[in-house]
């Protein structure tokens, strides 16, 4: 984890920045980073399942994670080497990309991680490597609040409800119910910095039971209350204007 915010403080790099090596068949359970960051796969590969979807990630791929997103990783039998670069601000949408010149990024990172982070945003080419089987269809439906009954959704897909719940947890590392709740909180965190809507109206718009419900889930996700996040975003905006 690290300092809460949209991006890392580039003056003080987080402990996980730089090159990381993962062994054969390693697994990283679902976890959440406060920072926005990019992961460039140097060698090997893995299956990532996160808030932005599931991807088979291979050398040259870059996975962008926005602040407060969660994901789990299952590494290939070859393991993987991954260059993790913090982003001062996530100007790029979360998802899978390819680097136009991965070797240039790697060489730059060997000298200066800050410079590599800045260069990376100009190097991104969108990729269409997202998986599209039923766990991913369910994840998207949950994010869009299109699933009111898991049993009904499973029946529509010709699946057993108990198998859907168990299979989704294996694929994403979290239950369907928790995935939807976390995504609502994630949307709230993002909207608090851009929307002037009142807290009560925002809670209703995003499908929370009430404002207190939104406050609990936002605090659990980000470590801050909605009011604190809104004040912080206003202060950051004012600092940038000066």
Automatic annotation (TrEMBL):
Where the record annotates domain HTH araC/xylS-type, the positions are 132-232
Transcription regulation keyword on record: yes
**Pfam families in the record, alphabetically?**
HTH_18
Instruction: Name the domain of life.
Output: Bacteria
Q: Which SUPFAM superfamilies match?
A: Homeodomain-like (SSF46689), RmlC-like cupins (SSF51182)
Q: Which UniProt keywords apply?
A: DNA-binding, Transcription, Transcription regulation
Q: Which residues cross the membrane?
A: none
* Claim: Transmembrane is one of the keywords in the record: no
- Protein name from the UniProt record: AraC-like DNA-binding protein
**Source species of the chain:** Brevundimonas faecalis
């Amino acid at each position: 984890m690290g300092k809460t915010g949209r991006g890392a403080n580039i003056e003080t790099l987080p402990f996980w920045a730089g090159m990381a090596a993962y062994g054969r068949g390693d697994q990283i359970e679902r976890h959440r980073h406060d920072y926005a960051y990019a992961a460039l796969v140097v060698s090997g590969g893995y299956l990532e399942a996160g808030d932005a979807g599931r991807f088979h990630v291979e050398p040259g791929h870059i996975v962008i994670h926005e602040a407060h997103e969660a994901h789990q990783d299952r590494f290939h039998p070859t393991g993987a080497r991954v260059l993790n670069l913090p982003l001062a601000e996530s100007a790029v949408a979360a998802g899978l990309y390819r680097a136009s010149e991965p070797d240039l990024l790697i060489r730059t990172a060997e000298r200066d991680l800050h410079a590599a982070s800045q260069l990376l945003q100009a190097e991104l080419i969108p990729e269409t490597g997202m998986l599209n089987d039923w766990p991913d269809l369910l994840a998207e439906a949950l994010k869009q609040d299109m699933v009111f009954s898991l049993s009904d959704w499973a029946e529509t897909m010709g699946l057993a409800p108990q198998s859907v719940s168990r299979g989704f947890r294996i694929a994403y590392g979290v239950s369907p119910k928790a995935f939807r709740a976390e995504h609502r909180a994630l949307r709230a965190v993002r909207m608090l910095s851009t929307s002037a809507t009142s807290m009560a109206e925002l809670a209703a718009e995003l499908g929370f039971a009430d404002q207190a419900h939104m406050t609990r889930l936002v605090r659990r996700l980000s470590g801050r209350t909605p009011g604190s996040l809104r004040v912080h975003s206003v202060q950051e905006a004012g600092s940038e204007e000066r």
